[in-house]
Amino acid sequence: MVNATVRSVQGDLDPGQLGVVDSHDHLFFRSPLLPGQELDDVDLARRELESYAAVGGGTVVQWTPYGLGRRAAELPALAATTGVRIVAATGLHQAAHYTPESLARRADDLAEVFVRELTEGIAGSGVRAGLIKVAGGFHALDTHARWTMRAAAEAHHATGAPIAVHHELGTGALDVLDLLCGELEVPAHRVILGHLNRSPDVVAHREAARSGAYLAFDGPSRANHATDWRMPDAMAALAAGGYADRLLLGGDTTSAGARSVSGGPGMPYLLRRVRPRLEESLGEEGVRRVLVANPARAFAVEWA
Asked: Where does the source fall among the domains of life (predicted)?
């Protein structure tokens, strides 16, 4: 028998308690690749969550990994104040998001860091991470990506936590599956492939879904607006092919200007505007599956 729980920042939850889920977003995020656009204001994070809750949002899965300003210690109070459940991440992003010195400090113990943050908690916060975030490159997996994914697989096997993957411009999903699910023997249903709307390749999407992995479609965003409009058709094609139970939806707010409280679309847009549009393609029940039933399974920590 497999047991499953979702590890929120306030403690473990029955997966059925999540409600409507934003499956990929950021309350806090700081990277040298986005100077001046840091997400680091606690009050703005609270207001964004309140706006999301006001349109029916129940849970946010924050994919911000190690070393990028997660502010994990702030998350339990934000969840308590707003009523929105939050899941935090461990893991490591692409090398470009870090200094060489910070990466060097992690060289020998990366899997150990992931396991510790999943089981004991993120240092200085008391918050246990609920997923492992890693990243590939553009149509390729470089040495850094393979290193982080090996550590993620080791941590998954030790803890049962799911692995969420950033795909640069939506590419490289099949290479990731070959590594994680082939060579490293991570069950495909424990892998969440992010940003697939950014490369609307229906053939690649179908092959990825056939593996049993979850496919996360994240938007809208200024940087990826050229492909965001194709998202409903891409998701409808997968649903029609029998893969409706593999689909997830997220907002992926990574810059200060993208927040709704700062004039951008933000988290509420996912439910105010994206959901009605998807209902035209998937139907109300199909969208309910994407927002409620699928993430309850995808983000569960499993153990025997």
From this structure: Bacteria
